[in-house]
Amino acid sequence: MDVLSEGPVTDALYWVRGPGLHALLIVLGAVLLARLVSWAGKRITDRIDAAATGSDALVRSEAAKHRHSLTQVLTWAAIVLIWSIAIFFVLETLGVPVTGLVAPATVLGVGLGFGAQRIVGDVLAGFFLITERQYGFGDVVAIQVVGGGDPAEGTVEDVNLRITRLRSVNGEVVIVPNGQIVKVVNLSRDWARAVVDVPVPSSADVNRVQQVLREVGERAFADPRLHRLLLDAPSVMGVESLALDEVNLRIVARTLPGKQFEVGRDLRARVALALSREGVSLRATAQEDDVRDEALAEDRARSGGAA
């Protein structure tokens, strides 16, 4: 009875000290190596970010964006490779016949192939996104996905072979599978353009308004704070559209990539102030006029009812 009882215990101890321990060491080694790769990738991306923010340039260069995205992709691929190799060695150490799994794995691979078509498509699309440098870390993009709807807009925070993660203006995190992307609008590539439409009453002197807008553009370009964001002086394009009671003029400015929003807000404030000094009021849109008229009508009705 003692011999029979010692047999399973001896086998279990042998397995724990032998294949079990080897498998555990392989898993621990894979964990440490994956963490090392992740740490090294983070160090590299931090150095890229520090070099981009520490330079005199106000925006990241396209090369810095691409290096950051490429480092993220290589880190992700290295971690996947480490765990794939670790799983193979663990199975071999535990005595699982890996060669005998080739035929079942083939059948399973065919089955998974039909179910994982989207994942494969995401990875292939991500590969071309990175190699073609369509966008990178820090770019401001608008991504149109399959099925239409409103595009996903925001700043790129992460790009890998499967997904793209954006941060919207409202602080929301938007995750887009790369295989679902059908159109990308990069708003921060090489240079950008701030477009400001100025609606004025049709009774206003259009020539004088255009002169005021040119003066606003010249003063903005001479301002040291805006001068470093502008590639050239803002230009007045002229009358953009006509309506019964308003004339719409447009002023445009070429800016550094991603700075068009800041420049646009500043130009609108300058235009509103300059036109108010000239006694020219900015026209509200027809929809706003209708809403105001309806509100006034409701107030009159309530006043009449109260009386």
Description:
The protein has 307 residues and is an alpha+beta fold. Among the domains are: 2-96; 192-287, Alpha-Beta Plaits (2-Layer Sandwich). Helix content is 57%, strand content 19%. The protein has helices spanning 2-54, 62-93, 102-115, 117-131, 206-222, 224-227, 260-277, 286-306; strands at 140-145, 152-159, 163-167, 173-177, 181-186, 192-201, 235-242, 246-255. The strands form two sheets. The chain has a five-stranded antiparallel sheet with strand order 4-3-2-1-5. A three-stranded antiparallel sheet has the order 6-8-7. Strand 1 and strand 2 form a beta hairpin. Helix 5 (206-222) crosses helix 7 (260-277). It is elongated and about 100 Å long. Mean pLDDT is 78; it is low at 1-5, 285-292 and 303-307.
> Within the CATH hierarchy, at the fold level, what is the topology of the domain at 192-287?
Alpha-Beta Plaits
The outline comes out as elongated
- SS-based structural class? alpha+beta
Distance between the termini: 107 Å
Could you give the order of strands across the largest sheet? 4-3-2-1-5
Q: What is the CATH architecture annotation of the domain at 192-287?
A: 2-Layer Sandwich
How many beta-strand runs? 8
What key attributes describe this structure?
single chain; 307 residues; alpha+beta; Alpha-Beta Plaits; five-stranded antiparallel beta sheet; three-stranded antiparallel beta sheet; 8 helices; elongated; disordered N terminus; disordered C terminus; MscS_channel_C_sf; mechanosensitive monoatomic ion channel activity; transmembrane; YbiO_bact
